[in-house]
Amino acid sequence: MLLGAHESVAGGAAHAIARGRADGCEAIQIFARPSAQWRAKPLAPEELSLFRSERATVGWPVLSHASYLINLSAADPTILAKSRQALAEEMFRAEELGLDFVVLHPGAHLGLGVEAGIAAAAASLSDLHDRTRGLRVRLLLEITAGQGSCLGCRFEEMEAILARARGGHTIGICFDTCHAHASGHDLSTEAGYERVFEAFARVVGLDRLLAFHLNDSKTPTGSRVDRHAEIGDGYLGLLPFWRLVNDARFRATPAILETPSGPDKLPSFARNLARLRALKGAPRPAGPPKSQALPEKIDPRQGRLFGSE
Ligand SMILES: [Zn+2]
Ligand SMILES: [Zn+2]
């Protein structure tokens, strides 16, 4: 795997490359525009050229994560139009920066139902295809935890969206380990790991799995609650990460940490990259995930977290 992290662009996009270097990344993810705003001012030509030259010196795959405001399944026509416009802008911005992939959560049906949500997401992706013909950058839909009415926690939903969208064959998948586990794809055992990737290969196809987000989960499998933990500290434990970093099928796949800051409030990426690298070629990690010993804080029927989290 090409191991890396989601790096801040504070001070300019090129700073993300410097931060990635300091952390020991071989790939990075950035926000190419503000993640919580609809509008973004164009990138200055100097910022663009600085980013492109810095990136050329490292040669890493670079992903951007699209704005969390975008909902391709929105029923409200204003939100839907804004979402489609913002995603097209994300793609053009990523192309300008020379990025490889834009990662997007597929959408939330907000009560309309999964079927209607899939149809709406596919229609929006068809619209995107028409607006962004000829771009080199590729869109990746991210596996979600299935929180609330979010689409994309079941492999069949992803497949259905891609099959129905015009240009769907060009769209790949970003596999977030925390989201997959929380949504009910139990990755914490060897048998679970085999089952989950066998199912993914059968339903979606491994040739579409173009990036990973590597996060442990603070919530158990089936909770449908998205809370990232540091590698080995959550309900996944070290075993699935040991499998992943030694899995020849994913040797050249970018894999991005989105782990939370530690108790010291400092970014945890260097520490977690070291944990992942220590698993390469290492013997099988012993013991169940640490979190299996923690008291249950989730009501799986409600899919929400109790307490002060
Ligand atoms: Zn993610
Ligand atoms: Zn998440």
Offer a concise description of the structure.
The protein is α/β, with parallel strands linked by helices and 309 residues long. It contains 9 helices and 12 strands. It has a single domain, classed as TIM Barrel.
Task: Describe the protein.
With 309 residues, the chain is an alpha/beta fold. It has one domain (2-289): TIM Barrel (Alpha-Beta Barrel), CATH 3.20.20. Helices cover 36% and strands 14% of the residues. The chain contains nine helices and twelve strands. The chain has helices at residues 14-23, 45-58, 77-97, 114-131, 155-164, 177-182, 190-203, 239-245, 269-278; strands at 2-6, 28-30, 62-65, 101-104, 138-142, 172-176, 209-214, 216-217, 228-229, 254-257, 298-299, 304-305. The protein is globular, with a radius of gyration of 19 Å. The model is unreliable at 299-309 (pLDDT under 50). One zinc ion (ZN) is lined by residues 176, 178-179, 226, 228.
Keywords:
309 residues; alpha/beta; 8-stranded parallel beta barrel; two-stranded antiparallel ribbon; binds zinc ion
Record the SSE blueprint.
Elements: E1 2-6, H1 14-23, E2 28-30, H2 45-58, E3 62-65, H3 77-97, E4 101-104, H4 114-131, E5 138-142, H5 155-164, E6 172-176, H6 177-182, H7 190-203, E7 209-214, E8 216-217, E9 228-229, H8 239-245, E10 254-257, H9 269-278, E11 298-299, E12 304-305
The structure holds zinc ion (2 copies).
Order of helices and strands: EHEHEHEHEHEHHEEEHEHEE
Rg, nearest Å: 19 Å
Overall, the morphology is globular
Number of domains: 1
- Note the total helix count: 9
CATH class category: Alpha Beta
Low-confidence stretches: 299-309
Structural class: alpha/beta
Rounded average pLDDT: 92
Separation of the first and last Cα atoms: 32 Å
CATH third-level topology = TIM Barrel
